[in-house]
Amino acid sequence: MFEELSSASEQLRVALERYLHVCSSIQDIYFQGTIPRNIPREYGTRVDHELSLAESYDMKMQQAKVAIKATRNHAFSIAPINYLPPEILTRIFQMARDIDPSSVDHLAVVCSRWRLVALGSCSLWSHIDYRPDPVKWFYPELLARARLHIFRSGGAPLDVCLAVESEIYNNKCRDEPVQSLCKLVGPRMSSLSLELDGLSWMLTTDRDGGNSVLSTLFSTCTPGILTKLVTKDEERFGFLATKDDHNFETSTLNLDLTAAHLNTIFASITVLHLTGLFPPWISHAYHGLVDLRLCAGCIPDDDEIAEAELVEILKASPGLRIIHFELGIIEWTRRDGQFSVPRVFLPELEVLQVSSGTGLSFSRVENFLRLLKPGQKPLHLSIRHHSSAADTKPHTTETRAFFTRSNITKLHATRFPQMFELLSWLPYLKVMVLSDFICWEQQPSDWYPIHHQSTTRLDTCYLLNCLLPLDDVLALARCYKPRSFVLFGGGFHRDRPDVKLQTRVVKKELSSICSDVKIAKTRPNMEEHRDLFYDH
Fold first, then answer.
1. Residue 124 to residues 121, 292, 503, Cα–Cα distance (Å)
2. How far is CA 389 from the centre of its chain?
3. 478-487 burial string, b = 16+ CB within 10 Å, else e?
4. Start and end of every F-box domain (predicted)?
5. Which residues pair with 526 in a beta bridge?
6. pLDDT tens-digit profile of 154-201?
C-alpha cells in the first residue's frame, strides 16, 4: 500500500509541475504587452471551466491531507497515547474532566479517534456543570452546553453542580431557561453540588414562594436516584426550608415543596457534605449514610446543633464510614452534673476528622468525641485545633478516653501540641502527621514527656510547618523509632528559640536514630479522604 502511495505521490508531483508550467505559459502569452489581448469567446469559456476544475483539485488535496493527518495521529510512534485501548483512554478523559469539567468539550475535537472515544462514553458527559459568569446574566451558551452534555450522556445518571456566586445572577436565575434545564437533569440526578456564595437567603417570615430554580430541581427528581448532596456556603449557616417549616430561628433557603416530598427525594442519600446550608436536622437525608460531613463556614457564630439531634443523626446511620464534624454542640444532656447520653456505636467507622473551629475552645472536639464508640476497624483520625489565647492548655479527658476505646492507626493533628502527652494512649498507631505545632520553650516542656521507650513503632512520622525544640523531636524519634521521618517547612531550635538550626544539622542528628530522614521541598501530596492524610 505504501509503495502505491509513493508511486501516486510521484505521479502527482510530475503532473502538478506540468500543469503549473502549462498554466504559467498561457498566462505569459496573454499578458504580453500593455493592452489586454482579444481572447476568443471559446477560450474564455475554457479558462472558466479550468478554474472550476482547479478548485475541485484543491478540495481533493484537502481531503488527502485530512486522511494523511488522521493516519499520522493514529501512528503509535508519533502519538503513543493512541496505543491505549479505548477503556483506558476513557478513564484518562474522566480524570481530566474531574479536574476541569470543560475539558471534555476540547477532548472531543482533538482528533477523530478521541472524538469517537469521547462520544462513545455516556458517563464522560454525565457531569453537568452550570456556573454562570458572576458579572453577567446572559448565558445562552452555558445553557446550550449543558443541554448538549445531557444529550450525549444518554441515559447515564447525572452529577449536577449548580454554582451561584453573585447577587446579579441571583436576581436573574429565576427564569424559564434555567428551570427548563432543571426539568431535564432532575429525573436523572444522582448527585447535586450547590455552591451558593452570594445567593440571597430569606428569613422564614419573609418567604414569597421559595427559590423557583431549586424548587423545580427537587420537584422533578426521581425518588431513589439521588445518593449524594453537597452544599457550600462559607458565609452563612442555615437550612433548606419547606412549606411545612415555620420554626427556624436562623436563615433559610425556602423551597416551594412539602417536607414529605423532600424527605422522599432525600431518603436515598448516602453521602452528605454540608457547609453552611443543611437540611433540617429531622430530615430523612441523615438516615442510612456512609459519609457525613457537617462543616462550619468562615464565620462560625451560629453553627450549632443540639446534642439530642446530633445523637439521633448518628444513630440513624450505624454504617457510617467517614465523619467530618466542625459544629458546636449545645443543650447537653446531664444527670447529677454528669453527661448522661450513651455513646453511639459505629462499627464501620474508618475515617474521622473533627475540628474546634478558628479561635474556639477545644471543648468542641471533646464534646463530639465523647459521643462516639468506634468498632475495631483501623481508624484514621484527624484533630484540628485552632487554639485561642484563653485555651492554651485545654482539657483532654474525653480525647484520651476516645483513644483508649479506638483502634487508631493513622493520626493527623493540627495546632495541638498537647497531642504529645496523649501518644502513649495510641498503641496501634502506624502513621503520624503533626502540622503547625509551635513551642518556643528553651527547656523540654511538660507537653513533651517522651523520655521512655514505647512499644509502638511508627511506619512514618511527618512534621509539617512545626517550630519545635530539636531535643523534643529527637526524644520523639527515640521513643517511637519511625521507619521514615519526613520534615517540611518550619524549623527547630536548641539554645535560643529565635535561632533556627541548619537543615543539615537537624538531618544529621535525626539520622543517628532513624535511617530514613527526608527533608521535603514541597508539601507532601494528599493521599485520601480529601485533606486528611498524606502519601507515605
1. 5, 27, 47
2. 33
3. bbbbbebbbb
4. 81-130
5. 534
6. 989 999 998 865 454 444 454 677 788 899 999 999 999 998 765 554
